[in-house]
Amino acid sequence: MKKIILFCILSILFSVSVFPDSIKTRFINANSFYEKGDFKSALDSYLELEKDISNWKIYYNIGNSYFKLKDPVRAKIFYMKARRFDPFNESIKKNLEIVEKVLNNNIHLPDSGFISRVLMTIESFLTLDVLTIILVLLILIFAYFEFMLIAKGKRKKLIYGILLSFILVILFSSYHMLRVSKFNRNKLAVVILKDSKLRSGPGTANTVLFDVSPGVTVRIVDNNRDWVQVAASSEVAGWIEKNNIERVK
Asked: Which fold, 2-103?
């Protein structure tokens, strides 16, 4: 039984940590287009890869390709997507700073507070993939203790093992669901259209409060049909048409 559990653990670790060879080959081919200066072909290849796998390197390279093709707004969106997977990556941070200088927008969201930075640090090490591996291992351990209890009868160590592993499974399951929910409801977006306006309410009949340029980052506050209430900074907020922004999903 122990050998079976060990085999399952190794299989899970191997399957999560290694990409299929087909993905690796396509990624290498896309990189070769980029290295040759064929940024359009590289972009097309990376975008096709994005349909099959989510990885910060793919988003990062899509951002690089858009930047080389003189589209800093799209580059920023994909750098921000890459940052969601690896929030403290220095290359992503540096390229975002370069894009922000090119866009030259003076409207910025407030910096994250201390608690938010601490949580981001924890999440950067305890990624969703790592959480999934831990959760599967805990379930296997729980199943192992149950099997041993049936096979050998009631023993204190086995009962304690079942209770402890059950509690850990519940805790990690709850945290995993919380992280997935947080990841899916990301509220950051980027303005993508020129002459975008923030209004006092949802609808063109409402007063224009601010004009915002493409590339401005906004935080979504509320939705109302084809309109979204957003905050672009501590002073700049209002309603904008959904088509004028793209969420960083």
From this structure: 1.25.40
203: left (phi over 0), alpha (psi -120 to 50) or beta: left
Question: Tokens 């096979």 label which residue?
Answer: 151
Phi-psi region of 37 (alpha: psi -120 to 50; beta: other; left: phi over 0): left
- Which fold is adopted by the domain 188-247? SH3 type barrels. (2.30.30)
Q: What is the mean pLDDT of residues 42-62?
A: 94
Where are any strands of DSSP class E within the chain? 188-191, 196-199, 208-212, 217-224, 227-231, 237-241, 245-247
Q: For residues 200 and 239, give the distance between their C-alpha atoms in angstroms, rounded to a whole number.
A: 6
pLDDT at 126: 79
> Cβ(44)–Cβ(58) under 8 Å?
no
End-to-end CA distance of the chain: 42
Q: What single-letter DSSP state applies at residue 242?
A: G
> Looking at the whole model, is its pTM more than 0.85?
no
Please state, in angstroms and rounded to a whole number, the distance separating the CA atoms of residues 155 and 15: 35
Task: Note the pLDDT tens digit of each residue in 164-196.
Answer: 999 999 999 998 888 887 766 678 999 999 999
Domain spans in the chain, listed from the N-terminal domain onward: 2-103, 126-184, 188-247
From CA 231, how far away is CA 95, in angstroms rounded? 24
Report the sign of the C-alpha dihedral through residues 125, 127, 130, 134, in that order. Answer: positive
pLDDT (tens digit per residue) in 1-33:
444 444 444 444 444 444 567 888 999 999 999
